[in-house]
Amino acid sequence: MSVLDNFDTWKDFLASRLEQAQSQGMGQETISNMAYEVGDYLAKSTEAKNDEEGVLQDIWTAASDDERQSIASAMVKLVQNEGNTN
């Protein structure tokens, strides 16, 4: 099963990569920029595997560059917040 098949699996994957980046000393801005690059790649190069990814892809496509940066930052915060509640 691919990490893209299930949205919860995708968020767990992102959280794991986020923890790894933070443990290597990457700052929040660098992490958000990397999230932007990943989001841009996924929107352009992959097919949504579930409804949540489809919505994110549609929003990403409709968004301006600044809005995409905000979406990427929000995804980082989403997995950070979920990690703090578990």
Automatic annotation (TrEMBL):
| Pfam families in the cross-refs | DUF3243 (PF11588)
Q: Which domain of life is it from?
A: Bacteria
Q: Which InterPro entries match?
A: DUF3243 (IPR021637), Uncharacterised_YmfJ (IPR024702), YmfJ/YflH_sf (IPR038292)
Please give the name of this protein.
DUF3243 domain-containing protein
Q: Which organism is it from?
A: Lentibacillus halophilus
What does the organism's lineage look like at the top? Answer: Bacteria, Bacillati, Bacillota, Bacilli, Bacillales
